[in-house]
C-alpha cells in the first residue's frame, strides 16, 4: 500500500486540482456556473451526478473534477473512494467544504496488497488537501487499522501462521510499550487445553499458542479484546471440501480485527487497562488430531464433547474468554469468523452482533451506522442452550440440528464469559467477495470501526 501518511495533507494553499462535489439536487445550479466549453464537456461525458460518477472538465490552463455524491450535505466514508481509485496521481482539494468522513475512503481506496507482486504500482499516490488538520491523524489511524486487517487476512497461511501472528502482535506491543506474553507447549496444554487440542495436529512450524498483551494504567477501567486466530482451518478430521478450504487463510480475521482495534486504543491513549488475547492455531489433520467424540477439558473447568472438529473456533475462544474473565474486565469484545450460518443470515457485508445488554447493542449499532460500518444484531437466546447439551459432558461444541447456527455458537461462547460482564461478540466475515469503492475484493475490516466508535464514546 502507498504510504498512508502521504495521502492526506494539511491545505496550505498548495497548487492542487479542484474537485467539485455535486448531488442531483444541485446539478442544475452548478451547470449554470460553467463556461460553454465546460458545459459541453460535462454533457459529452453524460454526467448526471450519480453516486461514484465523475467527469473531467477544462479549467483555465488545466482541468478539474466534478464528482457525483448522494448528498452533498451528508457525506459518507466512501464518497471520495472511487476518485482515489481512478484519478491520475496528483494533489487534489475540494472546491468547497470539508471532506469529513470522506477522508477514510480516500485512503482505503488506494489500498493495494502487493506483497507477492513483482510489478509495482503504475502511478504515484493521489493526495488530498484539507483545512481540517485535526481530522487527519484520526482518519489515517483508522485507515491504517483497516489496512492492517486487510494485510493480515490477505496473507496466505504459510506466511501468516501462529508464529507470524505472534510476531505481528509483538511488533505492536513493542511500539506502544505494552506487556507481552505468549503461552506455548506444556504450559499451553495445562492452562489452555482447548487451544492446545485444536492446534496440536499442526506442524511445529505452526504450533499453537495463546498471545496476550497488557497496556494502560491498572487503575483505569479494564477491557478485554479477544480475536479468533485460526490461521488455517482444514476442518480437522471433519474435513472441509476443497471449496470450503479455499478462503480459510481468512479464519484468523477475528484476531486481525482485535489486534487492529488494540492498536487504535493504544495510539489514542484511551483511559483503559487493555487486555488483548489471541488464541493462535492451525486446525490441521494428523495422527494426533482431536477427534469427533472426544471430551476436552477447558480452562473454565467445563468439559466439552466434540460433535464436529470443524466447530473449532468456539473452542479456542472459550479458553481465551475464560482467561479474559479472570482479570474482571467491565467490557469484553470478541471478533471471530465463526459461522457460515451468520453469512446465510446477514450476508458478507454485515457482521452479526451478539450482546448481553440491549444498551450495548444499541450503542454499537449506532456507532457502526455513524462510521459507515454497519452491523446487525442477532439473538442471544437462552432457549437454544438445549442445542448444546451433551450426554456425557457439560456441553457439546456443535448443535444437533441445522437451526440458528450463529446464535448457538454465541450461546457456547456465553458459557465462558464471566457472569455479569458486558460482552459483545462479532461473527464477522472479514472478507469482501466483490469490490466496492474503497473496499477491494479480499480481506476487510467489518465491525472494527463500529467497535472503535463505542470505545471512543465510553473511554475517549
Taken from the alpha-carbon principal axes, the silhouette is: elongated
The number of domains:
2
Structural class: alpha/beta
Q: Can you give the mean pLDDT? A: 97
What topology emerges from the helices and strands here?
Blueprint: E1 8-10, E2 17-22, H1 27-32, H2 36-44, E3 54-59, E4 62-68, H3 81-86, E5 90-94, H4 102-108, E6 126-130, H5 136-154, H6 162-175, E7 179-183, H7 185-191, H8 193-199, E8 209-215, E9 222-227, E10 229-233, H9 242-245, H10 253-267, E11 273-283, E12 295-296, E13 304-305, H11 313-325, E14 331-336, H12 340-346, E15 352-355, H13 358-370, E16 376-377, E17 395-396, H14 405-414, E18 422-427, E19 431-432, E20 442-443, H15 448-459
Parallel strand pairs: 1-6, 2-4, 2-5, 5-6, 9-11, 9-14, 10-11, 13-17, 14-18, 15-16
Antiparallel strand pairs: 3-4, 7-8, 8-11, 12-13, 15-18, 19-20
Helix pairs in contact: 4-5, 5-10, 7-8, 8-11, 10-15, 11-14, 13-15
Protein name: M17 family metallopeptidase
Domain Cytosol aminopeptidase: 308-315
InterPro entries: Leucine_aapep/pepB, Macro_dom-like, Peptidase_M17_C, Peptidase_M17_N_1
Task: Report what the structure shows.
The protein is an alpha/beta fold and 460 residues long. It has 2 domains: 4-131, Leucine Aminopeptidase, subunit E, domain 1 (3-Layer(aba) Sandwich), CATH 3.40.220; 141-459, Zn peptidases (Aminopeptidase, 3-Layer(aba) Sandwich), CATH 3.40.630.10. The protein is 32% helix and 20% strand. The protein is built from 15 helices and 20 strands. The chain has helices at 27-32, 36-44, 81-86, 102-108, 136-154, 162-175, 185-191, 193-199, 242-245, 253-267, 313-325, 340-346, 358-370, 405-414, 448-459; strands at 8-10, 17-22, 54-59, 62-68, 90-94, 126-130, 179-183, 209-215, 222-227, 229-233, 273-283, 295-296, 304-305, 331-336, 352-355, 376-377, 395-396, 422-427, 431-432, 442-443. The strands form 4 sheets. Strands 7, 8, 9, 10, 11, 14, 15, 16 and 18 form a 9-stranded mixed sheet that branches. A 6-stranded mixed sheet has the order 1-6-5-2-4-3. A 3-stranded mixed sheet has the order 12-13-17. Strand 3 and strand 4 form a beta hairpin. Helix 11 (313-325) packs parallel to helix 14 (405-414). The longest helix is centred in the first third of the chain and has 19 residues, at 136-154. The chain is elongated. The mean pLDDT is 97.
Amino acid at each position: 500500500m502507498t504510504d498512508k501518511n502521504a495521502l492526506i495533507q494539511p491545505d496550505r494553499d498548495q497548487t492542487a486540482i479542484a474537485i467539485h462535489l455535486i448531488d442531483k439536487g444541485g446539478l442544475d445550479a452548478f451547470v449554470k456556473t460553467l463556461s460553454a466549453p465546460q458545459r459541453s464537456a460535462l454533457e459529452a461525458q453524460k454526467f448526471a451526478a450519480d453516486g461514484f460518477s465523475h467527469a473531467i472538465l477544462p479549467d483555465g490552463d488545466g482541468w478539474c473534477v466534478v464528482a457525483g455524491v448522494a448528498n452533498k450535505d451528508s457525506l459518507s466514508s466512501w464518497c471520495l473512494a472511487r476518485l482515489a481509485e481512478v484519478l491520475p496521481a496528483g494533489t487534489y482539494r475540494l472546491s468547497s467544504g470539508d471532506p469529513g468522513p470522506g477522508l477514510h475512503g480516500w485512503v482505503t481506496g488506494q489500498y493495494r496488497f502487493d506483497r507477492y507482486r513483482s510489478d509495482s504500482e503504475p502511478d504515484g499516490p493521489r493526495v488530498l488537501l484539507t483545512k481540517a488538520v485535526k481530522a487527519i491523524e484520526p482518519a489515517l489511524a483508522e485507515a491504517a487499522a483497516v489496512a492492517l486487517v486487510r494485510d493480515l487476512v490477505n496473507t496466505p497461511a504459510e506466511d501468516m501462521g501462529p508464529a507470524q501472528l505472534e510476531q505481528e502482535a509483538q511488533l505492536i506491543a513493542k511500539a506502544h510499550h505494552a506487556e507481552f506474553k505468549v503461552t506455548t507447549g506444556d504450559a499451553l496444554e495445562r492452562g489452555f487445553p482447548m487451544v492446545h487440542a485444536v492446534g496440536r495436529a499442526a506442524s511445529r512450524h505452526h504450533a499453537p499458542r495463546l498471545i496476550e498483551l497488557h497496556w494502560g494504567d491498572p487503575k483505569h477501567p479494564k477491557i478485554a479484546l479477544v480475536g479468533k486466530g485460526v490461521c488455517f482451518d482444514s476442518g480437522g478430521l471433519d474435513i472441509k471440501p476443497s471449496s470450503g478450504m479455499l478462503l480459510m487463510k481468512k479464519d484468523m480475521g477475528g484476531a486481525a480485527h482485535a489486534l487492529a482495534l488494540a492498536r487504535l486504543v493504544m495510539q489514542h491513549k484511551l483511559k483503559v487497562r487493555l487486555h488483548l488475547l489471541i488464541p493462535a492455531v492451525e486446525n490441521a489433520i494428523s495422527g494426533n488430531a482431536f477427534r469427533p467424540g472426544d471430551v476436552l477439558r477447558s480452562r473454565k473447568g467445563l468439559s466439552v464433547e466434540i460433535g464436529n472438529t470443524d466447530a473449532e473456533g468456539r473452542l479456542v475462544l472459550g479458553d481465551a474468554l475464560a482467561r479474559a474473565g479472570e482479570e474482571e474486565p467491565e467490557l469484553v469484545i470478541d471478533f471471530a469468523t465463526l459461522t457460515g450460518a451468520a453469512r446465510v443470515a446477514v450476508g458478507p457485508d454485515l457482521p452479526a452482533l451478539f450482546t448481553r445488554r440491549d444498551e450495548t447493542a444499541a450503542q454499537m449499532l449506532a456507532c457502526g451506522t455513524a462510521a459507515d460500518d454497519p452491523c446487525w444484531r442477532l439473538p442471544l437466546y437462552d432457549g437454544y442452550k438445549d442445542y448444546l447439551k451433551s450426554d456425557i459432558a457439560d456441553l457439546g461444541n456443535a448443535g444437533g440440528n441445522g437451526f440458528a447456527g450463529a446464535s448457538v455458537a454465541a450461546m457456547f461462547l456465553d458459557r465462558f464469559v464471566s457472569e455479569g460482564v458486558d460482552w459483545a461478540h462479532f461473527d464477522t466475515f472479514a472478507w469482501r467477495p466483490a469490490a466496492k469503492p474503497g473496499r477491494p475484493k479480499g480481506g476487510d475490516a467489518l465491525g472494527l470501526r463500529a467497535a472503535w466508535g463505542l470505545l471512543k464514546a465510553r473511554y475517549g
